[in-house]
Write a structure and sequence with these properties.
With about 210 residues, the protein is an alpha+beta fold. The protein is about 15% helix and about 55% strand.
C-alpha cells in the first residue's frame, strides 16, 4: 500500500506541475455499485463526481456511499463470548449476528493517464470521514433479546453497539470507457482504511460506475 501511495502522489505532482492551465467546464457524475470484501463480503453503493483541474488529466473528485458490512474478526469474537455466556445462563438455543455498516464521504485527486484508444486508466487518492455502526444482535430460543440483555446481566460495550465517526483514507484505480456520447462506464477498484480506535478497518470495493461527462 505504501508503494501505491508514493506512486499515486508522484504522478499527481508531476501532472500538476506540467499542466497549469485550467480546463473549466469539464466534469462528471456517476452512480456506483460495488462488491465489498476483506473482513466481510457485502455490497456497497454510492455516487461520485468531479471536475477537471488541468487538460492533462488531473481531476478533483468527491465520493460518498454506504458499505453494508465491514465487520472485523474481533467483533465476531466478542459476540461469540456473549453468546457463550447466554448459552450457559439458560437452556434455550442462542444465536447471534454481527454487522458493521459504514457510510462515508471522501474527496481527493484523480489522475487519468493519456493512452492510445478510448479507454482511460486512472489512479486516485483521497481522504474523508466514515461513520461506523456496530450492530450485534442476539436471539434466545428464536426470540431477539438484544434490547433486553439486562435480564441476563449483560451490557454490550462499544465494540458491539453504538456508532462512531473516524478518518478514512481511500486509494483507487480503474478504467473509464466512453460507451456512447456522454455516457461513461467506469470499471473500478477502491481500497479504504478507516482509522478506528481499537483496530483499523480495511474496506476493499470493486465494481462498476455508470455516469455522464459534461
Amino acid at each position: 500500500m505504501r508503494s501505491f501511495v508514493i506512486l499515486t502522489v508522484g504522478m499527481l505532482t508531476v501532472s500538476g506541475v506540467a499542466h497549469a492551465q485550467s480546463a473549466a467546464g469539464k466534469g462528471y457524475v456517476e452512480g456506483v455499485a460495488q462488491s465489498a470484501f476483506g473482513n466481510a463480503t457485502s455490497q456497497s453503493y454510492g455516487a461520485e463526481g468531479g471536475f477537471a483541474l488541468t487538460p492533462g488529466g488531473l481531476w478533483i473528485f468527491v465520493e460518498g456511499g454506504l458499505t453494508r458490512n465491514v465487520a472485523t474478526a474481533a467483533m465476531g469474537t466478542a459476540a461469540q463470548q456473549i453468546a457463550a455466556f447466554l448459552a450457559e445462563a439458560q437452556p434455550a438455543a442462542v444465536a447471534f449476528q454481527v454487522k458493521e455498516p459504514v457510510t462515508f464521504a471522501v474527496a481527493g485527486l484523480k489522475y487519468e493517464m493519456n493512452v492510445n484508444g478510448k479507454a482511460q486508466p486512472y489512479l486516485m487518492v483521497g481522504g474523508g470521514m466514515a461513520r461506523v455502526k456496530q450492530d450485534a444482535t442476539f436471539s434466545v430460543g428464536g426470540t431477539d433479546v438484544t434490547g433486553n440483555l439486562q435480564q441476563y446481566f449483560v451490557v454490550l460495550g462499544t465494540d458491539l453497539s453504538g456508532t462512531s465517526t473516524k478518518p478514512m483514507l481511500t486509494l483507487g484505480a480503474g478504467v473509464a470507457w466512453p460507451a456512447w456520447k456522454r455516457l461513461v462506464l467506469d470499471l473500478q477498484y477502491r481500497y479504504g482504511r478507516i482509522f478506528a480506535d481499537d483496530q483499523g478497518i480495511n474496506v476493499n470495493r470493486a465494481g462498476l460506475g455508470v455516469g455522464v461527462r459534461f
